[in-house]
Each structure stands twice: as structure tokens, then as C-alpha cells.
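Customer escalation, tier 2.

The customer says the design service returned an amino acid string that "doesn't look like it belongs to this structure." They asked us to rerun it and document both sides in this ticket. The original C-alpha cells are below, unchanged.
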């Protein structure tokens, strides 16, 4: 019965031609590379408007390679928002660099651009070698704006700031396939952008990701690095430290089928987000405010509410799956020694009060109404 059946948080929706395309990929006997990988990459490039889309093994590896291509080296500092999935900060650390966490804006939950600028103006100096941190003299090489939950950062402003301070921009667009700002797709206005196709994302390849760029040389270099930097057609000659980060053909086949359904997925995500805003109107909850000019994919519905953890537990007893928002990076043991730039510790407050709401593209209206009614019972 629908009224008591479990309502999952965010399920994949594989009701298109996934099985057919994956079987075709297996039958072709082309597994590592192949025609579906080419097709999926072309679909991504066409949809986002990026000149190049390169399929990789996941969103984290996409970030690691993109940061390498952005010139991040051991000892560098990289500016990241304090509220994001840990992969954003991990990818920096993998390269021997350190993230500097910048607090988020209380309304948009995205990197606070005032704090970002303030840090660069008051705590860095520039010379011909780039931008350096006043106290540690470590180079500040890049900034990674994250388009959290589908909301797109003010990329015009961030690109301006980055250009002024000679730092590179790598956009973490893991959550924002289908999100545009002033008609430009997220992940396509920095030097490089990265995406995730993890199973909870708006489209999935089970595990997978992509690197976007408009720069042909960077795209070529990315392809080289993700295939172990092999520089000879037959001999095992490797001219750099490469990785085995390719997206494989059967998973790209799943991606190709998912891309065919993306416009419908975005439509449903928007309906779900609009429903929650409507049904909780006037109640003591707060939703993420979109940055002006953003057409969000509303990848994941979320809200702030007092006693969020108690509510999550209560909803679980009614078979409704919800989750907290991410723990701020500065609170995680691996990053506790890193710099955290803040005025009012907004990320901690948003994390403490944050909860993610059920928002599968396959959620029915009846299920949505059950979520709305049940939550209202607790918070009215
Ligand atoms: C903001 C953000 N960055 C990076 C990632 C990493 O992607 P993946 O899980 O595909 O490695 C995720 C994925 O969940 C994410 O939400």
C-alpha cells in the first residue's frame, strides 16, 4: 500500500533504454572505450555547450585531474566552499595541496564571494609567480566554486576575482547537470568544470563523471592523463604521472540512455522543489535561495529546520527517508588544521539545521503529499 511503503531519498530512474544500450555495448565487445563513450561525451558537450566533455570514472577523479590541469601542485593552497561533499576537498589533498575553506552565504548556501574577495585582498600578495598567502607564503593556485544542490554560483564575479588575483577556476558541477546561469550551463565558464554521475545524481552511470572544458589543449591533456599518460601507440611509454580514470563503454551506454531523459528529469525535480516550497509556505523552514539568473536543475530538495536530526529520525519511523546536509569541511578530522575563513560560521548553522528531502524523479504525487503532510504534522 502506497501510504506505508518506504519513500526513498533519491533513487536512480532507469526506465529508458539503459538495458538495451548496455547490452549493445557488451555485444560489441568494446568495453574500455567504444562508440557509446563517444556518443555520451557528445551528448554532454551538446547539452552543456562545452567544446569538450571527457568521460571519467567518477566526479572525484574528474576534480583531481581538473585541478592538476589547472596547475595545482604539492604545497599549493586551493580555495573551496566550507559546505560541500568531502570529495571537493579530498581532491585537493590528493595532490599534496591544501584546501582553504571559505564560509558560505546564508541564503544561497554557496561560497561567500565577499569573504573570498576579502581573503584574497587582505591575506595574499602577488608577484610574477602568482598569488601567495601572506602568512605561509604558499601559492594560492585555484578556486573551486561548487554549484551546491544545483544552485549556480555567480560565475561572472568569481571569474573576475580569479583573473584579478591570477588564480584558476575549476567549477565543481557534480550536482548541477541541467543548471544554467544566464543561459550558460554550469561548469562551462571556468577553466574547467567537473561532473558526477553517481547513482544519486540527476543522471547516473552507476559511477562516473566528466571533465568539461572549452580549451582544446586541456581536453587533449585530460584524455592523456586519464589513460595512464601513454604516449606511444604500441610500446608502453608513459610520459607523465597518469591515472586509470576512464569511463568504461557499458557505463557510458547507461549514460547515453539517461541523457535522452534529462529534460524530463529536470522538469520533475522542479515540480518536486516547487511542491515543497508551496506545502511548507508560512512554516518555520528555510529553502535555498537561487542566485539571480540561475535556472536550477533542483537536483536535491533540501531545507533548514530546527531540530532537523530529531525530525529525520521521526520520519524514518514513518518509512520516509531524509538525510542531514553535509558536515562542514572544517569540522572533519582530515581538514581541522586547515584555514577556515568565516565571520559567523554560517556553514555550521546550515549543516546543523539542514535536511535533504525525498526527491527521486520517479516519486509519485501521492508519495510527495504523504511527505508534505507528515512533515507538517511535526513542524506546524
Ligand atoms: C559537490 C560534489 N563534488 C564531488 C562529488 C564527487 O563525485 P563522485 O561521487 O562521482 O566521485 C560529489 C558527489 O557526490 C559532489 O556532490
Amino acid at each position: 500500500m502506497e501510504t506505508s511503503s518506504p519513500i526513498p531519498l533519491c533513487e536512480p530512474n532507469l526506465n529508458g533504454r539503459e538495458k538495451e544500450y548496455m547490452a549493445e555495448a557488451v555485444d560489441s565487445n568494446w568495453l574500455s572505450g567504444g562508440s557509446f563513450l563517444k556518443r555520451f561525451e557528445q551528448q554532454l558537450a551538446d547539452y552543456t555547450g562545452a567544446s569538450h566533455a571527457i568521460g571519467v570514472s567518477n566526479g572525484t577523479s574528474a576534480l583531481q585531474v581538473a585541478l592538476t590541469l589547472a596547475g595545482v601542485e604539492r604545497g599549493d593552497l586551493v580555495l573551496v566552499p566550507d559546505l560541500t561533499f568531502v570529495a571537493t576537498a579530498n581532491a585537493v589533498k590528493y595532490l599534496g595541496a591544501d584546501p582553504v575553506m571559505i564560509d558560505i552565504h546564508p541564503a544561497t548556501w554557496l561560497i561567500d564571494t565577499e569573504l573570498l574577495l576579502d581573503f584574497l585582498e587582505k591575506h595574499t600578495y602577488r608577484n610574477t609567480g602568482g598569488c601567495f598567502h601572506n602568512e605561509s607564503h604558499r601559492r594560492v593556485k585555484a578556486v573551486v566554486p561548487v554549484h551546491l544542490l544545483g544552485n549556480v554560483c555567480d560565475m561572472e564575479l568569481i571569474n573576475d576575482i580569479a583573473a584579478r588575483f591570477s588564480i584558476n577556476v575549476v567549477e565543481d558541477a557534480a550536482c548541477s547537470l541541467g543548471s544554467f546561469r544566464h543561459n550558460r550551463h554550469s561548469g562551462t565558464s571556468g577553466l574547467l568544470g567537473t561532473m558526477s554521475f553517481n547513482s544519486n545524481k540527476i543522471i547516473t552511470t552507476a559511477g562516473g563523471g566528466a571533465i568539461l572544458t572549452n580549451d582544446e589543449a586541456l581536453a587533449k591533456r585530460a584524455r592523456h592523463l586519464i589513460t595512464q599518460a601513454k604516449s606511444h601507440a604500441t610500446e608502453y611509454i608513459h610520459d607523465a604521472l597518469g591515472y586509470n580514470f576512464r569511463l568504461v563503454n557499458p557505463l557510458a551506454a547507461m549514460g547515453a540512455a539517461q541523457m535522452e531523459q534529462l529534460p524530463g528529469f529536470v522538469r520533475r525535480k522542479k515540480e518536486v522543489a516547487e511542491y515543497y516550497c508551496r506545502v511548507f509556505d508560512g512554516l518555520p523552514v528555510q529553502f535555498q535561495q537561487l542566485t539571480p539568473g540561475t535556472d536550477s536543475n533542483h537536483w536535491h530538495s533540501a531545507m533548514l529546520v530546527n531540530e532537523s536530526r530529531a525530525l529525520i529520525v521521526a520520519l524514518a519511523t514513518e518509512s520516509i527517508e531524509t538525510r542531514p546536509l553535509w558536515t562542514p569541511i572544517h569540522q572533519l578530522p582530515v581538514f581541522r588544521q586547515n584555514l577556515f575563513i568565516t565571520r559567523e560560521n554560517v556553514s555550521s548553522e546550515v549543516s546543523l539545521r539542514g535536511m535533504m528531502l525525498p526527491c527521486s524523479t520517479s516519486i509519485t504525487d501521492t508519495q510527495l503529499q504523504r511527505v508534505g503532510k507528515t512533515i507538517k504534522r511535526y513542524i506546524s
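Tier 2 assessment: The sequence is consistent with the input. The longest strand covers residues 52-56. Residues 58-60, 84-85, 87-88, 146, 172, 174-175, 196, 198, 209 surround pyridoxal-5'-phosphate (CB under 6 Å). Sent an explanation to the customer and offered a walkthrough call.
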